[in-house]
Design a protein that fits this description.
CATH architecture: 3-Layer(aba) Sandwich
CATH superfamily: Uracil-DNA glycosylase-like domain
Shape: globular
Radius of gyration: 22 Å
Oligomer: single chain
Distance between the termini: 73 Å
Length: 224
């Protein structure tokens, strides 16, 4: 029988039952591709991230955004890509990233001396904050990324990175400049550059925090 006639008959049946519309459903994501337990190197991890469909952000991204820089004793972790990062495939290249570059330079750090990643590897729509399920999907990636970079010091940029690394749910004002030991690495936090775009008066506080990061590296017998 003609499948179109079958569909028409089915619709007529539904109409007779009082159904006047059929909700449209979004296409399902392709099956999730779980992260391998131990990618051997950062290039392998990057390739797995590029193919990831573990959360709905895979549907809306232009591309995944893995990192900026090279393995270093100092690693920064931000929140999530924005529109510029989604377009270019590199972290912190928009206005907040340009500000971060200037602040780093002001305290004697060049971006090519450090490694920078984000909690999420895909841009949330409209640059909204990460959702818990998205953070959970990316958590194994960030954990393995940190293991492969093997920094001595981690600096969380903003509250979402601080929560992902430390489980911190308090204020950034209370956390910044303090130190915690995580899996043998020293972790601190400071304000996210996007916060500084809205509150430039705290820029000097971030510079002080970054000077503290350099002092910590020095105390560990490491430099950039």
């Amino acid at each position: 029988m003609d499948p179109r006639k079958l569909l028409k008959d089915q619709l007529l049946d539904w109409k007779s039952w009082g159904v006047d519309s059929v909700p449209r459903t979004e296409p399902a994501l392709p099956p999730s591709r779980p992260l391998a337990l131990s990618p051997a190197d950062l290039d392998s991890l990057r390739a797995q991230v590029a193919a990831c469909t573990a959360c709905p952000l895979a549907r809306t991204r232009t591309q995944t955004v893995f990192c900026s820089g090279k393995p270093s004793p100092l690693m920064f972790v931000g929140e999530a890509p924005g529109a510029d990062e989604d377009a270019r495939g590199e972290v912190f290249v928009g206005r907040a990233g340009q500000l971060l570059t200037r602040i780093l330079k002001d305290v004697g750090i060049s971006r090519d001396q450090v490694y920078i990643a984000n909690v999420l590897k895909c841009r949330p729509p409209d640059n909204r904050p990460p959702e818990p399920a998205e953070v959970a999907a990316c958590a194994p990636v960030l954990k393995r990324q940190i293991e492969l970079v093997n920094p001595k010091v981690l600096c969380a940029l903003g509250k979402h990175a601080a929560f992902s690394l430390l489980g911190w749910e308090g204020s950034m004002k209370a956390l910044r400049g303090t130190w915690r030991l995580l899996d043998g690495r020293w972790v601190t936090a400071t304000y996210h550059p996007s916060y500084l775009l809205r509150t430039p008066g705290d820029t000097e506080s971030v510079k002080d925090d970054l000077r503290g990061v350099l002092e910590k590296l020095s105390s560990l017998g490491s430099g950039l």
